[in-house]
Design brief:
The structure holds 2 protein chains of 2 kinds. By secondary structure, chain A is an alpha+beta fold. Helices cover 47% and strands 10% of the residues of chain A. Chain A has helices at residues 3-11, 17-33, 72-82, 102-110, 141-149, 155-174, 184-201, 209-219, 222-225, 231-257, 266-272, 283-314, 316-324, 329-340, 371-374, 410-427, and strands at residues 85-88, 96-99, 115-116, 182-183, 345-350, 354-356, 359-361, 366-370, 428-433, 438-439, 448-450, 452-457. In chain A, the strands form 4 sheets. In chain A, strands 1-2-8-5-3 form a 5-stranded mixed β-sheet. In chain A, a hairpin with an 8-residue loop joins strand 10 (438-439) and strand 11 (448-450). The model of chain A has no long low-confidence stretch (mean pLDDT 92). By secondary structure, chain B is of the alpha+beta class. Helix content of chain B is 17%, strand content 22%. A 5-stranded mixed β-sheet of chain B has the order 2-1-5-3-4. Chains A and B meet through helix 4 and helix 5 of A and helix 3 of B. Chain B: It comes from Oceanococcus atlanticus. Chain B: GO terms for molecular function: 2 iron, 2 sulfur cluster binding; electron transfer activity; metal ion binding. Chain B: This is Ferredoxin. Chain B: Keywords: 2Fe-2S, Iron, Iron-sulfur, Metal-binding. Chain B: Pfam families: Fer2.
Chain lengths: 459, 106
């Protein structure tokens, strides 16, 4: 635990967690004014150079505009072919290694004894706060905290959620305009993932938009992912989130203490487990883990919901294939997740010197596992840039990661996408993307902020 | 060549040839036994080829190794004789092996 986290844990006994986060912001601003910390980077979009004009050592895949400008495929293809374990010396996020081939990524992901997930899994660290979250913890603490919450998305529980999800999908799809173009991202993808999140957290349904707002701001930290947030809205979102969840936490605890049966939601699960029942008393762990669960359920499925529509628009023969054979949906879901890869990477720090694919990664070096590149590796996926809904090895995609940090919500994500497509095919003959979608600014989230579509109902 | 029986959670049994030298996971996939996903392709890194070895066979297959245990710990259906099928290599000694599949792969 960091000194900051320890100090906050002590302070938490008398000062509410959200007030402490506000305090951190004041401290952080003061330090910045005194020149004690670096000014956070501000990313201004300019034309990303054609990768073929660059020397290998000048290639910087941390650029948060790479996907938006359609350059990501070419950049990573060159790295996979010419320098699959690549060192970038000088980037806004410091020096780092890029691991770009499927096989090597699996190696790094699996060997947590060689590569640590601590202290954070994003490209850069966030100055002023040191959130503690189990995706960025090594065993054994990781295992304890993950086990406390994974039941909520375990397959058995999902069976019970299926009916509810289908009802909501139907309700959202039945209320879409048929005569005029609309934004699929806000009307469908965000709406559905937000409803799901509110259910998993048992968060007040009418305030569910909060969850997405916080998630978006936190994931878009410029220091961490090159996104467009700034210190002010980051700290505000963090404090608001911690306040809302502390309130919910104490309410649930009071009910449990009064002898009520625990309900099946994430907070109640944390409260009922001996390893996590006092999490609220460690504000950085509380903030980190709740942030993780919100972002994990938000950016990922949302962008695969949009990405599937976009991919089937780009590859219309696949849409025809799907309409002719609805039993392809489960495999298509894996293929959409491969094709979209909504989170581009996870970061590790080498715990020791490691030889990998001809390079020596030194102890302490930052290592980025580019899932988005592994999922385009031609040695594993033929015509990897194409969406092929009956691709034989679609399930071998790497978007969920491998090893102990493998995505905990993978089955929920697959189920949400499967139901969405089952219900779409009951209603619509085509979803036409009428203009190129807007892509978010990030080196981590591969997502859509707006995608205008027009529906053709089944005749 | 011997035999191995995979029993699905609903009781359906699949008796298939035990090809010596192959991982049990591969044998299941090659014979299209439902319920084995094998997402990581046999690297003990995803936990989606979970099988529960019949008690009388666990002496011959051996217990899960450390890496394997770490993955198996994450599934709620873990049993004392749980293994990942990618980590069991078929041999003559395993002729007649019986394994059960969990209700869900994680």
């Amino acid at each position: 635990m960091s000194i900051q986290a320890k100090a906050m844990q002590v302070a938490a006994k008398v000062v509410p967690a959200d007030v402490q986060i506000k305090g951190l912001r004041v401290l952080h601003n003061t330090k910045r004014k005194l020149g004690l910390t670096k000014t956070p980077p501000v990313f201004v979009e300019s034309l990303v150079p054609d990768v073929s004009t660059l020397a290998l050592e000048d290639i910087d895949v941390s650029n948060p505009f790479l996907v938006r400008q359609g350059q990501s495929e070419a950049y990573f293809k060159r790295l996979r072919q010419e320098c699959p374990v690549h060192y970038a010396k000088d980037t806004p996020f410091g020096p780092f290694w890029s691991i770009t081939r499927h096989e090597d990524i699996k190696f790094v992901d699996k060997h947590h004894e060689l590569f640590s997930a601590e202290p954070l899994i994003l490209m850069g660290d966030i100055q002023g706060v040191q959130p503690e979250l189990f995706i960025a913890m090594d065993p054994p603490k990781h295992d304890e905290q993950r086990m406390a919450v994974q039941g909520v998305v375990a397959p058995k529980n999902l069976l019970e959620l299926e009916g509810l999800i289908r009802e909501r999908v139907a309700e959202v799809l039945d209320n879409l305009p048929l005569d005029t173009p609309f934004d699929w991202v806000s009307k469908v993808s965000i709406e559905l993932t937000t409803r799901m999140l509110a259910t998993l957290f048992d968060y007040p349904y009418e305030r569910r938009a909060d969850l997405v707002r916080w998630s978006d701001i936190i994931a878009a930290s410029p220091e961490a992912t090159g996104g467009p947030s700034n210190d002010d809205n980051f700290f505000q979102a963090a404090a608001d989130m911690v306040k809302a969840f502390s309130t919910l936490w104490w309410e649930k605890k009071a009910r449990l203490d009064a002898g009520a049966e625990p309900s099946f939601d994430l907070i109640s699960l944390l409260l009922s487990n001996k390893d996590t029942k006092d999490m609220v008393k460690n504000p950085m762990e509380f903030f980190g883990n709740l942030g993780l669960l919100i972002i994990g359920g938000n950016d990922t499925t949302r962008n695969s919901m949009s990405g599937g529509v976009y991919a089937l628009h780009k590859f219309p023969e696949q849409f025809a294939k799907l309409k002719a054979n609805h039993s392809l949906i489960p495999n298509m879901v894996s293929e959409i997740i491969r094709w979209q890869t909504p989170l581009a990477y996870m970061r590790r720090i080498a715990k020791t010197d490691v030889e990998l694919n001809g390079q020596t990664i030194r102890k302490g070096d930052k290592v980025i596992m580019w899932y988005s590149s592994g999922n385009r590796d031609e040695d594993v996926f033929e015509d990897a840039h194409k969406l092929i809904i009956d691709r034989k090895n679609a399930r071998n995609h790497i978007a969920f990661g491998f090893g102990v940090h493998r995505c905990m919500g993978n089955r929920l994500a697959e189920m949400q996408l499967r139901i969405l497509w089952e219900e779409i095919l009951q209603r619509f003959d085509n979803i036409e993307v009428v203009e190129e979608p807007e892509i978010v600014q990030s080196n981590w989230v591969r997502g859509y902020s707006r995608m205008m579509v027009k529906l053709t109902p089944l005749s | 060549m011997g035999k191995v029986t995979f029993i699905e959670h609903n009781g359906t049994a699949h008796e298939v040839e035990l090809e010596y030298g192959q991982p049990l996971m591969q044998i299941a996939v090659d014979n299209m036994v439902p319920g084995i996903d094998a997402d990581c392709g046999g690297e003990c890194a995803c936990g989606t080829c979970h099988v529960i070895v019949a008690d009388e066979w666990i002496g011959k297959t051996g217990q899960a190794g450390d890496d394997e245990k770490q993955m198996l710990d994450m599934t709620p259906e873990k049993a004392p004789s749980s293994r990942l099928a990618c980590q069991i290599v078929a041999s003559e000694e395993l002729d007649g092996l019986v394994v059960r599949l969990p209700e869900f792969q994680m």
